[in-house]
Specification:
Blueprint: H1 9-20, H2 26-33, H3 37-49, E1 69-77, H4 85-94, E2 98-103, E3 110-116, H5 119-129, E4 136-143
Antiparallel strand pairs: 1-3, 1-4, 2-3
């Protein structure tokens, strides 16, 4: 939370507005923030430069693309492969089916969000590709039945 203290009320409004509409023009944004367009532009550029804004992207519907299965996959590493963890992570990043990957604590080492066309495609990905990655000792998947709250904006204090 320390970095949040560096943000004033205008910075926070800008971040909230851009999460709501990343395609807003600078003029539209400046009207919502109640700053002049040049002031607003400078603030957005500073927020980008300081890493508060990581990028801009369209939210694409996986269902419309025929990717009807979302699964959360827990991954355990072979303890003998600890020296090659970064190679394993690089391989995981290369799989387009893996939308997200987190290093976690607890019974597993990683948690992945994976999409697939159907259950057979998911099974093939897990068996033929993910479980073949050197260093992977166990994989456990949980299939999502319904998406309740997809990717949400980060809460920005007022």
């Amino acid at each position: 939370m320390i970095d949040m203290e560096k943000l004033d009320k205008f910075d926070r409004i800008i971040l909230r507005q851009l999460q709501e509409n990343g395609r807003a023009s600078n003029v539209e944004l400046s009207e919502k923030v109640h700053l002049s367009p040049p002031q607003c532009f400078r603030r957005v550029k500073r927020l980008e430069a300081e890493g508060y804004i990581r990028g801009y992207a369209a939210q694409v519907s996986v269902a419309r693309l025929g990717l009807d299965v979302i699964a959360f996959v827990s991954l355990t590493l072979d303890r003998d492969q600890n020296k090659k963890v970064r190679e394993l992570e690089k391989t995981i990043r290369s799989f387009p089916e893996v939308l997200e990957c987190y290093g976690i604590s607890g019974d597993f080492d990683y948690l992945l969000k994976v999409v697939a066309r159907d259950l057979k495609s998911l099974s093939n990905f897990l068996t033929d590709r993910l479980m073949q990655v050197p260093g992977v000792s166990a994989v456990r998947s949980t299939v999502c039945l319904e998406e309740i709250k997809p990717g949400s904006p980060v809460p920005i204090e007022k």
